[in-house]
Write a structure and sequence with these properties.
Layout lengths: L8 H15 L2 H14 L13 H17 L3 H14 L4 H43 L1
Helix pairs in contact: 1-5, 2-4, 2-5, 3-4, 3-5
């Protein structure tokens, strides 16, 4: 590190966990993504690349998870329709952004678990250090 924090590492870690989990909460992520794509210019260069079977499977999985399983289902379908009608050339990129979000929706739980494990290790080491000093 190029600086020494003045606040306890436990407090900083808890704030980081809260911020990371909030950033990748499904509903705010969908809202931000939609807002971002609505602000973009709708022109994209022409591509003649066919859509692969892997991309079709990914699309189906995304529709299943965000369109049916998650609590975001109504917003997902509404935003998908709005992007398809108003910015059809950005639809592929919109799906890519939603797929990235789908990854982080699950990854945030792993980050929370790993950081809390490390944090408990640090707390335990501090307790043992205090006991050995006493």
């Amino acid at each position: 590190m190029n600086f020494v924090p003045t606040r306890p590492v436990e407090e900083l870690t808890e704030e980081y966990i809260d911020a990371f989990c909030h950033i990748y909460e499904p509903m705010p992520y969908l809202k931000r993504t939609f807002h971002h794509f609505r602000m973009m210019n709708g022109w994209r260069g022409k591509t003649n690349r066919p859509i692969t079977i892997t991309e079709l499977r990914l699309f189906a999985a995304l529709c299943w998870r965000q369109g049916l399983l998650h609590s975001t289902r109504f917003r997902f379908w509404w935003q998908l329709g709005a992007i398809a009608l108003t910015k059809p050339r950005l639809l592929y990129d919109y799906f890519v952004a939603l797929c990235a979000g789908e990854h982080f929706f699950h990854y945030r739980y792993q980050v929370r678990e790993q950081l809390q494990t490390q944090l408990s290790t640090i707390k335990q080491a501090k307790r043992q250090e205090l006991v050995s000093v006493s």
